[in-house]
């Protein structure tokens, strides 16, 4: 079967689909990953065909203000919609759509008659269990949570409205608003599989049929891959270090964050690994190491703790490794995942990015490394996650939908 996975956004919005795609390929399917050019190497390293989506996610990691985030998202969606139709390959048998690509992919599927399946990394359907993940707010009560969830979808539809209208015109489809398109998908119980663990988000009982939580899809890396020798040497040279990194977030804050991280580590008496990321973290010293991108699955089990921005992928990777965390959420869905980690007892209370200081970080590191309750909670969650097979569940659903 020829499967096209369409995903767009930051690295964390794309990398999990490389592992999912590789699992589908190993099952005998012909898999293409349609994403932005920056992530073409990720697709090819996973043995997947690559199809370019016309948008540039770079620079979004510098956004820390919610209004600026909305403006940045609107610009990104406009770019994405301009050439989205070109990503569709002739003869595609199934289209897998991410949270960011579904509102465009629905129109493409309508024009071509191609079956579709949602493959989401965030819970977007309204529920009384929690407020919309993008708001970063605490529970408002069941009724208010559901109303806020509907409003969040309304705002999403507004963001996609212009791009969707242009795409429908190009595909020679009759006009149909983004909101009506969504309602049509909901009434049809359009299937969506969610690639996160039930230990973090159990499936809400008030979700409509067709929505399922299956467990994480992990970024692909070769079974023979090893950490670089200098990283192994550093890990072997002393007690387990703490990793500090902000992934694709905090662009332009590198100098301040690097200085802050070093002061916090030394105040807490801990060795540290700084992951460069979009912020450009860097530091030198016998008790410090600066690294670039490394497979979380190889590095995180060797750490005492992880200080991170609480993106969905990094949150799950640390939990899977049994590594306790100090979450420092920046924007978007990150406060939601940070609160979920803390509620599990596997992380300290989140430190909002704008409130981060060396003193607050050092105090949090003292607690997360010094008290074994955090590590025990992370280890319990890791055992639960080991029972889930997110990619396997997608494969079963794909084969059931297509009769293959």
UniProtKB/TrEMBL annotation:
<dbReference type="InterPro" id="IPR004276">
    <property type="entry name" value="GlycoTrans_28_N"/>
</dbReference>
<dbReference type="InterPro" id="IPR002213">
    <property type="entry name" value="UDP_glucos_trans"/>
</dbReference>
<dbReference type="Pfam" id="PF06722">
    <property type="entry name" value="EryCIII-like_C"/>
</dbReference>
<protein>
    <submittedName>
        <fullName>UDP-glucose:sterol glucosyltransferase</fullName>
    </submittedName>
</protein>
<dbReference type="GO" id="GO:0033072">
    <property type="term" value="P:vancomycin biosynthetic process"/>
</dbReference>
<dbReference type="InterPro" id="IPR050426">
    <property type="entry name" value="Glycosyltransferase_28"/>
</dbReference>
<dbReference type="InterPro" id="IPR010610">
    <property type="entry name" value="EryCIII-like_C"/>
</dbReference>
<dbReference type="GO" id="GO:0016758">
    <property type="term" value="F:hexosyltransferase activity"/>
</dbReference>
<feature type="domain" description="Glycosyltransferase family 28 N-terminal">
    <location>
        <begin position="3"/>
        <end position="64"/>
    </location>
</feature>
<dbReference type="GO" id="GO:0008194">
    <property type="term" value="F:UDP-glycosyltransferase activity"/>
</dbReference>
<dbReference type="Pfam" id="PF03033">
    <property type="entry name" value="Glyco_transf_28"/>
</dbReference>
<keyword id="KW-0808">Transferase</keyword>
<feature type="domain" description="Erythromycin biosynthesis protein CIII-like C-terminal">
    <location>
        <begin position="286"/>
        <end position="400"/>
    </location>
</feature>
<dbReference type="GO" id="GO:0005975">
    <property type="term" value="P:carbohydrate metabolic process"/>
</dbReference>
């Amino acid at each position: 079967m020829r499967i096209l996975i369409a995903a767009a956004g930051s690295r964390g919005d794309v990398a999990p689909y490389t592992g999912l795609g590789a699992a589908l390929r190993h099952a005998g399917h012909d898999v293409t990953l349609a994403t932005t050019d920056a992530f073409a190497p990720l697709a090819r390293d996973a043995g997947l065909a690559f199809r370019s989506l016309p948008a540039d996610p770079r620079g979004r990691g510098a956004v820390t203000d919610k209004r600026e985030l909305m403006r940045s998202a609107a610009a990104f969606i406009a770019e994405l919609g301009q050439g989205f139709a070109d990503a569709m390959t002739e003869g595609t048998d199934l289209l897998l759509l991410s949270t960011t690509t579904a509102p465009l992919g629905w129109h493409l599927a309508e024009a071509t008659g191609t079956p579709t399946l949602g493959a989401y990394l965030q819970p977007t359907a309204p529920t009384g269990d929690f407020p919309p993940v993008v708001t970063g707010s605490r529970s408002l009560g069941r009724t208010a949570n559901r109303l806020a969830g509907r409003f969040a979808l309304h705002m999403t539809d507004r963001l996609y409205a212009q791009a969707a209208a242009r795409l429908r015109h190009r595909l020679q489809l009759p006009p149909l608003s983004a909101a009506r398109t969504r309602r049509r998908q909901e009434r049809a119980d359009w299937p969506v599989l969610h690639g996160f663990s039930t230990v973090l988000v159990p499936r809400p009982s008030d979700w409509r049929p067709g929505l399922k939580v299956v467990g994480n899809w992990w970024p692909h890396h070769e079974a023979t891959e090893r950490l670089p020798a200098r990283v192994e040497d550093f890990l072997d040279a002393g007690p387990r270090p703490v990793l500090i990194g902000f992934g694709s977030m905090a662009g332009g804050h590198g100098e301040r964050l690097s200085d802050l991280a070093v002061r916090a580590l030394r105040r807490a008496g801990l060795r540290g690994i700084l992951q460069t990321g979009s912020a450009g973290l860097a530091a030198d010293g016998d008790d410090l190491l600066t690294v670039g991108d490394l497979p979380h699955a190889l590095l995180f089990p060797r750490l005492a703790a992880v200080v991170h921005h609480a993106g969905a992928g990094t949150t799950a990777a640390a939990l899977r490794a049994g590594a306790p965390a100090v979450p420092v959420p920046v924007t978007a869905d990150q406060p939601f995942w940070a609160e979920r980690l803390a509620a599990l007892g596997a992380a300290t209370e989140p430190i909002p990015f704008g409130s981060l200081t060396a003193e607050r970080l050092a105090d949090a590191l003292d607690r997360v490394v010094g008290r074994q309750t955090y590590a025990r909670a992370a280890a319990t969650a890791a055992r639960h996650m080991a029972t889930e097979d997110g990619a396997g569940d997608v494969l079963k659903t794909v084969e059931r939908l297509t009769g293959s």
